[in-house]
Description:
Blueprint: E1 2-4, H1 6-31, H2 37-50, H3 52-55, E2 58-62, E3 69-73, H4 75-84, E4 87-89, H5 99-120, H6 133-160, H7 166-173, E5 178-184, E6 190-196, H8 201-209, E7 221-222
Antiparallel strand pairs: 1-4, 2-3, 5-6, 6-7
Helix pairs in contact: 1-2
Amino acid sequence: MLAQSHARIHKERAMRRRKLKWLWARLKQISDMDIDREELLMKLGAARAKARAAWRLIDVEVAPDSASFTLTLNRNKLRQVRRREGRYLLRTNLCGQEPAQLWQFYIQLVEIEAAFKNLKDDLQLRPIYHQLEGRIEAHIFVAFLAYCLHVTLRAQLKPLAPGLTPRAVIDKLAAIQMLDVHFPTTDGRTLILSRYTELNADQKLLVKQLKLNLPSQPPPRITAPAKRAVGAARPV
């Protein structure tokens, strides 16, 4: 079954253009450098490793006896890539199914694979070092709750900030910390101020985009004075 998505076509073409533009500019920079042949080959290898897909669209020929090279855009490969962008050929053993239903099955498979990836990477479900069965089940249950929050955050981001991923939001908000500042008093008590750190510009913009309201700073609290030990041993 041949499937294509116009949104995916635009996305893949934008990604390919960005990588190809970067690679072409990088190769131009390398060609203007005054370096020996060995260093030239190393820099070309690094550029290839960073943009492998775009490298296939450029023909690079290194001179056999000098530190120079030529590059040309392979327009035949570029036309082939343009025809394939956003288009997929699906093979299945489900005969007699409608194409729309097969595509829905494929999308569900992609979502399931993404869920396992999130559980293993972002939520760190594995490894599990527990010995008892109950603790293993509790570990998996907590990871499942975290995944539910992960999916909820992704659904909330879709209409408000479609360009952000849950991983990016978690990384940005992870810098917000809650601190307890302890001030000892003269009567033996301790004044505790719980404060979360001030948001930077990116965090303020993200919180505003998600329509979130941070709670107010908690009020200070004070501990009881430390009691002296009773019945302490006396030196003889």
